[in-house]
Amino acid sequence: MLDNLGEDKSIYLQISEMIEDEILRDILREEEQVPSTTELSKFYKINPATAAKGINLLVDKDILYKKRGIGMFVQAGAKEKIMEARKKSFKETYLKKLITEAKLIGITKNDLKRLIDEITD
User: Fold this and answer.
1) C-alpha angle 87/92/94, rounded to 5°?
2) How far is CA 19 from the centre of its chain?
């Protein structure tokens, strides 16, 4: 879990993204139990309802599911669902803006590919 929460977005969204990140990093695996709302609220010193809202967001996305009387668990296929959603978001949030800016300042597709290669090498 993250040591602290930022102020850039709602706490429940940060809780949800933190759990997604742990799934992507294989810290939380399919069928493993996730921290309870009580554990999250104590760790982050937040209202349990806020922690529950973050957890429920993942339930709504079919990333987590509830085992009655036991807790919340990572759904089978959750990692792939998160990756697909984040790839789509990446494209919409970052790539479209990047390409628009590149065109505006005269960077061609080949120039852009070369710049990416320079950064990643």
Assistant:
1) 85
2) 7
- Cβ neighbours of residue 86 closer than 8 Å, sequence gap 6 or more: 20, 24
Global pTM value = 0.82
Structural domain boundaries, residue 114:
88-120
Both 100 and 74 in one domain: the answer is: no
- The two three-digit tokens of residue 92, written as one number: 């919409």
pLDDT by 10s per residue, the chain, length 121: 555 677 788 999 999 999 999 999 999 999 999 999 999 999 999 999 999 999 999 999 999 999 999 999 999 999 999 999 999 999 999 999 999 999 999 999 999 999 999 998 7
Query: How many structural domains compose the chain?
Result: 2
Task: Point out which residues pair with 67 in neighbouring strands.
Answer: 71
**Do 28 and 74 share a domain, yes or no?**
yes
